[in-house]
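PROTEIN FOLDING TASK:
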Amino acid sequence: MVVIPVALAGRSYDVHVGQGLIERSSELAAAFLRKAVVPVVADKNARQHHGQRLEQALASAGHSATWFDVEPGEASKSWESLQSLTDWMLANGVERGDHVLALGGGVVGDLTGFACSILKRGCGFVQIPTTLLAQVDSSVGGKTAINTSAGKNLIGAFHQPALVLADTDALKTLPHREMLAGYAEVIKYGILGDADFFAWCEDHGASVVAGEDEALTEAVAQSVRAKARIVSEDERETTGTRALLNLGHTFGHALEAETGYSDNLLHGEAVALGMVLAARYSHRRGLMTASDADRITKAIAGSGLRSEISSLEMRCNGATLVDHMRHDKKMEAGTLPFILLRSIGAAFLDREVSLEDVSAFLDEQLTAS
């Protein structure tokens, strides 16, 4: 097991990465389980696969679980789900000193974290992420949110977990497509800030996606270390450092919006496409070499992820995608910052991007073969 601290002023917490952590959850989270009945918010699929493991772990320490089931998919990050969850928490007597367990992927983590941030002005929660994407990204850093008709993650709060238990055994039940979607967030850390880790991903990406234990633990641990460093430097995204984690997301969120936040395009798949677009647009702007942009494209395509937005067969143009970007929560005074690249491992925040130029670039990409 690897333990990675997320160092924040007065609110530091640990991320545990390794096998068999759900079985050890009552031991590792003992300080946060103060009542006999523990509230657990769970993705329905995650509960089916791992609920019994968690219940047995809790029972071994004299606890039982009360469950709130969440339907899989982005549609559950809604006002209606938030209301149902907070009503359930209140009905179950959750107090400010209590901690709710979140068992599932990013949807459950985001929904539970946001509910806990507003319930009685804030109670605690413990993340038990069961997808690769959640283990390496959304479970760490305290960003919580729901979606609205205006866009993704526009209603939310910063609310850090008390503990994260990233049990790599949980990933053995994931469909291959979900592993690929999570891998996009793994390779992202190499592209944005660590050329050596990117090279490691080029060599070991297939082993990570295949779920090989050693490669998987290394990928999750390295990703969490990278995110912990960035979050420690810029928790609330005020200096621009944390914004680097949004590499691929401005393009990706537009693609998600155009495909209806549906299973037609998973979040990680959108981020992968977004990183290819960011690399190509960086080359278009004369910021990075064609060879680096091609290397990123090949690494993503070689993992099995899509690398061409033309493959989505969307009936739209660049202007339509840019219109989705205008609803991005980072939009300010009519401008939208983009995360671009000078080279592999050297991302930066560019506040001088012309959306008209982005629109023309996307028109080219939409028709590329």
Remarks:
- The first helix runs from residue 25 to 28.
- The domain at 2-173 is CATH 3.40.50.1970 (Rossmann fold).
- The mean pLDDT is 96.
- The two ends are 45 Å apart (CA to CA).
